[in-house]
C-alpha cells in the first residue's frame, strides 16, 4: 500500500527519490524521531538533539506530512517538502549575496535551494536532502539563514542516528 502511495507522490510531484530514503518512507509510516548530534556525530545519543522526520502520509488530520500544504506568511504556500522555497522568498529580499551562506563552504544559489527536499526538522531548523549534491543531507539554520552539509547521504545520516520510536 505505501509503495503505491510513494509512487503516486513521486509521479504527482515529478520526483525520483533516492532508494534508501524510499525504503525509509515505506518502513516508517508515521512521524519518527531520532537522536543525532550534527555538531559531534560520534557523541552519545544522550547529548544529541531530537530530529523529527516527516512521513509520506498523515497519521492524523492535523499531523505533519511531506505533501501537507504549508503556508509562510507573506511568502505563499507549498507542500511541506518544498518549504525552503518559501524561506527563500525572504532570503532573496534581504540577502546581500545571490544565495544562501554555507557553514564552512561556498554560498549556495537560491535556485538550488528552491529544489531541495525537506524531510524533517530539529529545533525549528529544516532538515533536507539536496538532489544537486547526490541527495546529501543538510540542515538549514532558521535563525541565521545559513546551511550546513551534515552527511553525504541519507543512509550515512541514518546510520549515525539513534531511533526513539522505531
Characterise this structure.
There is one protein chain. The protein is of the alpha+beta class and 166 residues long. The chain has one domain (2-163): 3-Layer(aba) Sandwich (SMI1/KNR4-like), CATH 3.40.1580. It contains five helices and eleven strands. The chain has a seven-stranded antiparallel sheet. A two-stranded antiparallel sheet has the order 3-4. The longest helix has 12 residues, at 83-94. The protein is globular and about 45 Å long. 25% of the residues are buried.
Main β-sheet, spatial strand arrangement: 10-9-8-7-2-1-11
Structural class: alpha+beta
Spatial extent as radius of gyration: 15 Å
Distance separating the two termini: 20 Å
- If you average the pLDDT, what whole number results? 87
CATH class: Alpha Beta
Key words describing this protein structure:
single chain, 166 residues, alpha+beta, SMI1/KNR4-like, seven-stranded antiparallel beta sheet, two-stranded antiparallel ribbon, 5 helices
Question: Mind sketching the topology for me?
Answer:
Elements (H helix, E strand, L loop, with lengths): L1 H11 L6 H9 L4 E5 L12 E5 L15 E4 L3 E4 L3 H12 L4 E2 L7 E2 H5 L2 E6 L2 E6 L5 E6 L4 E6 L2 H7 L1 E2 L3
Antiparallel strand pairs: 1-2, 1-11, 2-7, 3-4, 5-6, 7-8, 8-9, 9-10
Report a brief summary of the structure.
The chain has helices spanning 2-12, 19-27, 83-94, 110-114, 154-160; strands at 32-36, 49-53, 69-72, 76-79, 99-100, 108-109, 117-122, 125-130, 136-141, 146-151, 162-163. By secondary structure, it is of the alpha+beta class.
